[in-house]
Structures are given as structure tokens and as C-alpha cells.
Write the C-alpha cells for this entry.
Amino acid sequence: MSLIPADNHLAVMAALFAIAGAGFLLEKTRIGALVTGAVSAIFIAILASNVGLIPSSAPAYDFVWTYFVPVLIPLFLMKADLKKIFFETTRMAGAFLLAAAGTVAGAVAAFALIDIGDYEAGAAAADLGTRQAAAVGSFTATYIGGSVNYGALLGATGLGEADPSFASAMTAVDNLYSGFFLALLAIMPGWAWLARRYVQIDHTHGDIEGVEEDPVSAASLALSAAYALIVVAVGTLIADQLDAFWEDAGRKWKFAIISVLALIPATAFPKTMGRMRGGYEIGIGLSFVFFAMIAAGADVMSLLQQAPVLMLLIGVMLAIHAVVVFGAGSVMRLSLPELITASNAAILGATTAPALAAAKGWKDLVTPGVLVGVLGYAIGTPIATLVFELWPG
């Protein structure tokens, strides 16, 4: 039982949006800025659920899974012009692909070494694969593209529905580790012994550019939402047809199909898509609602039991990611700032990568940092789905 009944759909949805809004407000405080708004929203939702303010499961949460999670993909990919990413940022694109490879290597190695157990008997959607396979796919997704890909894999693998408490623990530990990793990347340029091992390139020249910033209007918001919903509707239709030929293929590959469909207009008509402002902002807001929904299913005792093994697992995964990126990057004659920006874009996304580059004075890496972060949104879901599908067992 909870103060807000599970069948009061509007009240439950209002609570999720209120928690998301609180996360944004707390991010403006000194402490909130350190832990990030996403982590704040996660812990508020965990607290609210466990003290009985909001339900741990509700039909409104299913609505978020069904509609909010897939629509995040086209919202984040509206500016994903692959021609610009690969031809205008060749070195950074190469560094990011190396970072993505490091993520895959880290995920495969970490999950091969550490067993996290399987679903409880009779858990919903467990027939889609083992919890080990679902988790390795989900972590691969989040450390290539971020929350949009993470949500897609939790949905595609069924992990979010089959084991919400474990998914909540994954989300909480992931966000905490991401903060620590960002701090590590920020101090690495100050290590002289490390910097000497990389090719020296002056990244302080050039102007700090942003993506074209036409004002957000009611029309642009409506068009962005309409575009995202159309892409999801078409992608879902294709996935449903695929199910008729290959059992469960549509559900498993639905989000990858949506990603490919979203990339087509973004690459073919970049100027037209560039005028549709506000999609990214809508996506960020909905992603906070998604985090709140995931966290609401967390049982505190279960979360505390799962946290140690998850902390070990993610620690191993990120360590291997770093070894691959900064080891192979030196051989590939990439500079330390390029590798830091690429690793940042993979692990934390398109927002923090350009911010860190700007803070360090690497002016010519700010725009490439944005672009390779968007590349992560584009390739994260297909790569992670492939890892999930190929995982033994």
C-alpha cells in the first residue's frame, strides 16, 4: 500500500514528473551539482517508494516503458548527421569508436569474471534471456550512449520489468560511478608523467561553437514531438512484422530499428532537422522521469545486497575501458585531450564531454565532443543489442 494508489494513474505520473523536477532544481544547488540531478531524482524516488508515498509498481510505470523510453531515441538523434560526425571530426570519431570498443571489452570481461545470478523463478520476460545477458547488454548501452540507450536495452531485454529492484540498483550504482569517473578524467591532464606518453597537440585554438541555436518555440516543440512519435510508430510497425518471421526478434531489435530510422532524416536532411529545436530538451526531461520510474521499483534491502557486486563489476568494466582507450590511444597517436573527451562522451554522454573540454580550454574539441556524444546515441543501442544477443546462455 502507498499514499498514492497504484491505480491512480494521473497521481502516479504527477509524482514521477515532480521527482524529475526536483532533480533539476537540486542540480542548481552546490551539493546537487556534485551528485547530479539524475542521482538526486533516483534517490528521491527510492525514498518515496520505500516510505510508502508512491507505489513500487503501477500501470503508469508500464506507460513510461511503453511510450517514453522508445521516444527518447529519435529525440536525442534529431541532430545525428553521420556525414558531419565522420568527415568533420575524423580523429575524434576514431577516438570515440576506440572508447566504444573499450566499453564492449570491459563489459564482456567483467561479466565473464563476475556472476550476478539469474531472475527469480517465474519472473516476467525472463524467457528473453538470462539476467547476466540482459545486464551486460544494458551496461554496454549506457557506457556507449548513455541513458537513452540504457533505457532501450532495459526494455528490449525485459530486465526492467522482470527484476525492477535489480534494475534500480544498476541505475543507482551506474550514476554514482559515472560521477567518480568524470572526476578522474578531469584530473588526468594534470599528471605530467601520463601526458608525456601521448602525442602533443595544441587544442586551445579555434572558437567554442555550439549547435545552431534557433529559439525554441511552441511550433518546434510540437514538430519535434510529432517527428519522434512518427519514428517510433513506424519502427514499432516494422518490429511487429519482424516478429512474424522470427520469434521475439521484433521486441529485441525494436529499439535498434528505431535508431536506424531516426538516423536517416538526420543524415539526409540535416538543415531541416536542425531547425526543429527542443527535442533534446524534451528528451532530457523524460529521461529524468524514466530514472524516477526505475528507482521507484527499488527495495532498499535488495539494493544494498546487490550494490557490492555491482560496484565491483562496474569498477572492473571501467578499468578495462580505460586501459583499452588510453593504451591503444597512445599507439594510435591520439592526444590525451582527445582520448579524455572521447571516453567522457562514451561513459557520460554528449553533455559533459564538451563541458569538460571547454573547462580545460580545449576549444577545438568542444563541438567534436558534442558530435561524438550524439554518435554514441546512434550506435549504442545496436551494439548493445548485438552483445545481448551473442551472450552465451
Observations:
- The two ends are 37 Å apart (CA to CA).
- Confidence is low (pLDDT under 50) at residues 207-212.
- The CA atoms of residues 134 and 205 lie 44 Å apart.
